[in-house]
Each structure stands twice: as structure tokens, then as C-alpha cells.
Amino acid sequence: MIKCIIFDCDGTLVDSEYLCNVGLEMMLENYGIDSSATEMMKKYRGGKLAEILQDIESEHQINLKDNFVTSYRILVDELFEKELRPCEGVDKALNEILLPKCVASSGPLEKIKKALSITGLTDHFNGKIYSSYVVDSWKPDPGIFLHAAKEMGFQPNECAVVEDSPVGISAAKAAGMRPILYDPNNIHSAISCLHTIRHMREFQRAIT
User: Fold this and answer.
1) Angle at the Cα of 22 from the Cα atoms of 84 and 190, rounded to 5 degrees
2) Residue 83: which H helix or E strand, with range?
3) Out of 76, 85, 110, 173, which residue is the most buried by the measure of CB atoms under 10 Å away?
4) How far apart are CA 119 and CA 15, in angstroms?
5) Exposure of 168 by Cβ count < 10 A (0-12 exposed, 13-18 middle, 19+ buried)?
6) H or E element: which one contains 102?
7) With contact defined as beta carbons under 8 Å apart, do 124 and 138 qualify?
8) Residue from 48, 114, 36 nearest 82 by CA
9) What is the rounded CA–CA span in Å between residue 169 and residue 140?
10) How far is the C-alpha of 156 from the C-alpha of 147, rounded, in Å?
11) What is the distance between the alpha carbons of residues 8 and 87, in angstroms, rounded to a whole number?
12) Do the Cβ atoms of 1 and 58 come closer than 8 Å?
């Protein structure tokens, strides 16, 4: 029986994946690289920033400046302030969930908190927010989810994980939790996942 819900943040609670990649596209223009935010989102969705940047450096044979990450984070913060929105139907879905719930994301803790604050979702989680940067475990490693379950006081098989990326679904499976794929645009048809939802209003059926 599912007793706890663990949510990813980017692309699951908040519609931030595209904005993060717009920021990356804008930063890479300074290096003469014309990379589409849409294509990068498909390629890197749910990935660790350090590994994404390593791949970009290798692919384009460049060395990013030491201040690249700091400048990128500042730019993304600006984009969030102007354009970040919650994913469609998520506020209503969170209000209807009576089970304990938390956020477990690969993003830095302050980035997660800011995204939830801007979109008005903070109060749904009562401070139960866990970051890969704090526990030093990135998806598809299950460490972030196992940490969240332990902190919430539940066994892995009592938890469901809501994710929008292949690496997140892999991490949930590796943790022994029920993976729920949130795929509103049907872009992950190749992922083997028993529970897939296109809209947050379908969430309740996925945990029963």
C-alpha cells in the first residue's frame, strides 16, 4: 500500500525544464554554439548539470569558463522570476492528496525552494524538500529517493515517486518504489512504466 508520495520538482511540479534549457542556450551563444533549448531538453532532461556541461564541452571541443555555472544560475533565476509557472493542474492535485508528500530533486536546495515559492507550491510540503546536492546522490542512483523515504519515515515499497524523466524513473525503480511517469506531451513512450499519467488529474488512479 502506498503511504507516501515523493515528487520530482523540475518538469513535474513546476514547468521549469524549458526555462533551464533556454538559459543554457543563451549562455552557449557566448561560445558560438547554436544549440536549441528544445533539443537540449530532450537530450538532458533530469540530468546532473556537471555531467551535462562535461558532455557539451566534449561535443563542441570547448572549455567553459570557471564562472559559467554561477552566471548560468543567475540567468535561470531571472527567467524563473519572469516566467516560471506550476505544471498544469498540480496545485489542485496536491490539495487532493491526503498522504504525506515531499520533494526530492537533483537541483540545488535553494533553486528548488525558489521554484516552489515563485509558483505558490511551498506550503504543500511543510519543509519536506530534499536535494541531491545535500545527500550527494544523483539520479539514476536511488540515493536521493531512499534518503527522502527514510526522512519521511516510510519503507521504500510504501512510497510512490512522480517523475518526468528517464533517469528519475530508473532511480525510483532502483529504490524499490512505485514509479509514476508524468508525461503530458507523450515524449517518453519508450520508457517501460506501468503507471503513466498525462495530466495531474489522473494522479489518484496511479496510487490506488
Assistant:
1) 90
2) helix 68-83
3) 76
4) 9
5) buried
6) strand 101-105
7) no
8) 114
9) 8
10) 10
11) 12
12) no
DSSP 13-72: TBS-HHHHHHHHHHHHHTTT----HHHHHHHHTT--HHHHHHHHHHHHT----TTHHHHH
What is the C-alpha separation between 12 and 167, in angstroms, rounded? 13
Q: DSSP letter for 98, please.
A: -
Residues 205, 208: Cα–Cα separation, whole Å? 5
Cβ pair 197, 180 in contact under 8 A: yes
Single-letter amino acid code for the residue at 146: L
This prediction's pTM? 0.86
Spell out the per-residue pLDDT of the chain, length 208, in tens: 999 999 999 999 999 989 999 999 999 999 999 999 989 988 888 788 999 999 999 999 999 999 999 999 999 999 999 999 999 999 999 999 999 999 999 999 999 999 999 999 999 999 999 999 999 999 999 999 999 999 999 999 999 999 999 999 999 999 999 999 999 888 777 677 779 899 999 998 888 8
Task: Copy the grid coordinates of residue 206.
Answer: 496511479
> 6 by DSSP, 3-state: which?
strand
Q: Are 195 and 169 in contact (CB under 8 A)?
A: no
The candidate with the shortest Cα–Cα distance to 76, out of 120, 14, 166, is 14
